[in-house]
Amino acid sequence: MAVMYIKMLFPMLLLLMGMCGPASGDWVEVWRDDFNGNSLNLSNWKFETGGGGWGNNELEYYTNGQNADVCNGSLTITAKVENVGCENFTSSRLNSIPSWTYGYFQARAKLPKGKDLWPAIWLFPQNNTYGLWAASGEIDIMEYKGQVVDTIEGTIWYGAKSPNEVFMGSGHKSFPIDFSADYHVFGMQWTNTFISWLLDGQQYYSVSINGNLSSGAPYTANGQPFDQPFNWVLNVAVGGNYFPVSCYGPVVTPALASQWPQPYMQIDYVSVSQWQTSDADIVSNENVDTGKGGHMYSAIGIAETLIASGHEVWFTVNSCWSGQLTRYGINEVLLDQMDSPLGTSIEHTVKGMKTREVLSGASPAQKARYCGLNFEFIATNVKLLDKQLERPILTIKPDVIVLDQMLTVPSVELSGIPCVWVCSHGPLYLMAGLDERAPPFASGLSATGDQSLWREFRQIVRNSIKEDWMAFNDYMIDRGCKPLPKYAMYNPLHYLNIYGYPLELDYQDIRPLSANFIRFDNLMRTESDLTFVVPRELVNKPGKFIYFSLGHFGSADLGPLNTEYTLADNMWGQEWVSQIQVIRHIDLVITHGGNNSVCETMFFGKPMIVMPLFADQYDNAQRIHDKGFGLRLDAYKCSEEELLAAIETLLSDSAMTDCLAEVSRRIQTDNSLAKLPKLIEDFVQNPDKYINTV
Questions:
Q1: Which tops the pLDDT comparison, 432 or 258?
Q2: Residue 80: which pLDDT band, with cuts at 50, 70 and 90?
Q3: For residues 655 and 11, which has the higher predicted lDDT (pLDDT)?
Q4: Do 426 and 595 form a contact (C-beta atoms < 8 A)?
Q5: Model pLDDT for residues 563-589, shown as the tens digit of each residue
Q6: Stretch 179-194: mean pLDDT, rounded?
Q7: Which pLDDT score is estimated for 573?
Q8: Are 90 and 66 in contact (CB under 8 A)?
Q9: Is the confidence at residue 197, as pLDDT, over 60?
């Protein structure tokens, strides 16, 4: 479940609050220099020497090491008043010998203090692949002016050869910090889609590089020139174009420099980490050590398209997601630790789901009798979140809020900020309790079936949730919100409602929705920085590729039992794989029917065997079965013979294969999610076109 805040191009801000969920990997350190010993490690670093202004009218001459000292576990680069060559100052400039493409670059440093001192921690391309500066790029992790001790900035340079360079960055960012007084960690995360700047582990700015960065540059593909190896550069410059006289007074002289209180930068360490996914040998595609991530994955998909359009996106997240979203260019605001009924691990969540009969072999109708317990569980969590969201809303002042929740959040409703309600569940949830023209949510009943069963199921749900629904509605009213429509989870008239579901599966043929409901074929994240290669042991084997995953909760139902199973030689498994990258390679998907999995599988046009476990998975399974895109089986009662027969049926159905290929072509051609930024921009500027707050 999630709430998002967006700052848009004109500008607009979005905030998303996300619950615990699995990350697809982690930053793993691959290189580090702690500057131990008594001298610089020359296998890691080399000196650049010389003067002449360095293209910026700088005043220093860089020496061959005389201004760089390694002692007591740190590197010190000192600017001095010395006449060398034609310059009145000396300093040092170090380049790393290793280079990297993409990563998390960090340097812990204490900065100098003094007029016109210009320390920089940055990256420069190893080769001029796209031409001389700035065509081949530059990434400034940290720049700083010695007389402005509370301000830093991060910048990327690119475009055509100077003087036709282009830049993007944070501009001058002030903090309640004297950067010359103590050490701080200056960080930059660089992927093939985003570059983000961090201070002491907290992101403060991000830019998208997932596009053509400059039409005047010699680039032929998105992401250039930031797709090449870059080296570290560490230096302290003196004077130059960074200090215009109109802003910073006369150019520094040796006499003025004699008053520098601290003419050196001290660096404790520099490190490089790269994003890696788990390679543990578990027969599952999901990480069972963290909570669910389906809602967060949809939110990331939404955020990616908004950021690519120039908007700034903030997520409010629990600690389990801290640091995992910056690689997408998403700003993070951490929620306070709270005693949530959702817990902090999937094991905790699964235990509760089993207690409430959500995760069991019971039928949907039997599970409906426990809806009251589940409603109470969700309402308790929403109340805990409600107060916590007031602070980021007031602090960030978003232009629009995007949330993915199961119940109304009063602090959002009362904020007066335009709000987009995202339904990452199956679309039957959108009008639950309000519209009876389609089967009830979580029933798994057919749209062409006996409607008396629909009514019976709805009555079971209402009887179960009645008291808890009334209590939550009273809470809403006490908070100052308008009452909810009877048995409704939220009032859709107050929101622009968006959802991801392929046209070929949607229910609008039997239940058209009003103009403030907008369907997209999916809310897929790109995962373009991840890859999957068919394992070598499977490549040359005969037969079809089948992908089997029952999601986080399917994996955790029995627990991680990978040590108790030996896979046949025509099988392969991992703890986590990039599902989006896997599905494109396979012939058949066996899935739990989670909404993301259904949308991703339809995107690639693959037939499905759906073995639902709970909630909208039942609805998705039945809809896929009814529409002829796969078969529904019972995850708890299916026999080996039944499963094998279903596999053979689908793999031999050429008509279904052709139909799904056509669906895939339509979805990929339409690229409906790309239209989301314009929709939200219009909503923010013209909310009355979409919502009724009466």
A1: 258
A2: very high
A3: 655
A4: yes
A5: 667 788 888 887 677 788 889 889 999
A6: 92
A7: 80
A8: yes
A9: yes
Kindly tell me if the per-residue pLDDT of 344 is higher than 50. no
Strand partners, 420: 402, 496
Predicted local confidence at residue 541, as pLDDT: 84
User: What string of DSSP letters covers 666-684?
Assistant: HHHHH-GGGGHHHHHHHHH
Identity of the residue numbered 607: P
Angstrom distance (rounded) from CA 24 to CA 285: 10
Q: For 207-233, give the DSSP string.
A: EE-SS---TTSS--STTTTTTS-EEEE
Q: Which residues contact 219 (CB under 8 A, 6 or more apart)?
A: 130, 212, 213, 225
Asked if residues 130 and 225 have their Cβ atoms less than 8 Å apart, the reply is yes
Going along the chain from its start, the domains and CATH numbers come out as 1-18+280-328+339-694 (3.40.50.2000), 29-275 (2.60.120.200)
Distances (CA, A) of 218 to 125, 126, 160, 282: 15, 18, 7, 45
Task: Determine the Cα–Cα distance for residues 94 and 231; give it in Å rounded to an integer.
Answer: 10
**Secondary structure of 340-351 as H, E, C letters:** CCCCCCHHHHHH
Q: Are 501 and 595 in contact (CB under 8 A)?
A: yes
Rounded alpha-carbon distances, angstroms, from residue 127 to 44, 135, 193: 18, 11, 21
Weakest-pLDDT range from 3-7, 49-53, 357-361, 623-627: 3-7
Contacts of 367 (CB under 8 A, 6+ apart): 357, 358, 360, 442, 614
β-strand 419-423 against 496-500: which pairing, if any? parallel
**Whole-angstrom Cα distance, residue 691 to residue 492?**
8
Residue at 150: amino acid letter: D
Active-site amino acid positions:
138, 143
**664: three-class secondary structure by DSSP:** helix
Record the tokens describing residue 432, joined without a space: 């639950």
Distance (Å, rounded) from C-alpha 303 to C-alpha 396? 16
Whether residue 255 has a cis bond before it, omega within 30° of 0 = no
Omega before residue 418 within 30° of 0, cis: no
- On average, the pLDDT of the chain sits at 86
- The residue among 672, 4, 681 whose CA lies nearest residue 332 is 4
At 189, is the pLDDT very low, low, confident or very high (cuts 50, 70, 90)? very high
Cis peptide before 225 (omega within 30 of 0): yes
Task: List the one residue out of 67, 74, 79 whose CA is nearest residue 259.
Answer: 79
Res. 118: pLDDT tops 90: yes
